[in-house]
Design a protein that fits this description.
- This protein is α/β, with parallel strands linked by helices and about 325 residues long.
- The chain is about 45% helix and about 15% strand.
- The chain has an eight-stranded parallel beta barrel with strand order 1-2-3-4-5-6-7-10, surrounded by five helices. It has a two-stranded antiparallel ribbon with strand order 8-9.
- β4, α5 and β5 form a beta-alpha-beta unit.
- α8 runs parallel beside α10.
- Pfam families: AP_endonuc_2 (PF01261).
- One of its GO terms (molecular function) is isomerase activity.
- InterPro entries: IolE/XylAMocC-like, Xyl_isomerase-like_sf, Xyl_isomerase-like_TIM-brl.
- This is Sugar phosphate isomerase/epimerase family protein.
Amino acid sequence: MKSGVFIVLFGQQAFEEALDTAKAAGLQSVEIGTGAYPGTSHVNAKDIVNDEAAIRRVKDAVESRGLTISALSCHGNPLHPDASIAKSHHEDFVATVQLAEKLGVETVITFSGCPGESANSKYPSWVTCPWPPDFLTVLEWQWNEIAIPYWREQSAFLRKHNVRVAIEAHPGFLVYNTETALRLREEAGDNIGVNFDPSHLFWQGMDPIECIKALGKSIYHVHAKDTKIDKRNTAINGVLDNKNYGDILNRSWVFRTVGYGHDDEFWKDLVSTLRLVGYDGTISIEHEDGLMSVNEGFTKAANFLNSLILKESAGEMWWA
């Protein structure tokens, strides 16, 4: 297994500087944002996909530092009811897949997307309960008329370019948990897998270790990000919390650097369980900790993750 980082974290740095930061921290790989929500501060897939010299510069910059690219990431909503947004995010995805093929990168990461409640919608509509029954009508339409046809088409497109997609399960989108991830894979194609991010599972009350066992070979990439649950606020208001992420004192949960939401034993178990289901790729740091600066959060995460992977490689964690 390799340790890595999603370098959108270093969006204020030039691409080469961001790579140097990752290398200096002892990481082995980088995940690169190429469009949609992650932005294009380092690489714009649409701009360089047909520029062989630019593609070579990206490849050389990574390889000359002894790094690898774990994935290209263009998290977006290609199912957005606003046609202009859907088109933009879809084009970012298409260009990213084409760029991945030219770079020799196997995995592209995005979201499943979420449509509106009908063809007349302006904004996405995420269904979270089965009653009133209108919600189930909406959900059936979203899956059968929008999501499944779209992702079947993208599965065929991916096969033509020898690339696979890792869908990040995230509340607000159709794929947000284990069963929805597996449903999309079953309905649309077995080259549609998962970018496993435990931080989004913790606050929904899920057990990431059991999720790994259930997802198995469908895990194509992994994010290292933690979540801290505030017991009092959760006891009072539950976990569906739409307060600003900066309102840390009053939120039911917040994202944290690995090791600051769950202890070493959990993370050791996570790494070992990934190995048990056959995952041998990158665990990529994603920093969204509102209590730590970028430098502090990244440094602590890198040290923590490198230590975990070193122990796992040495066979010290199989008992976990």
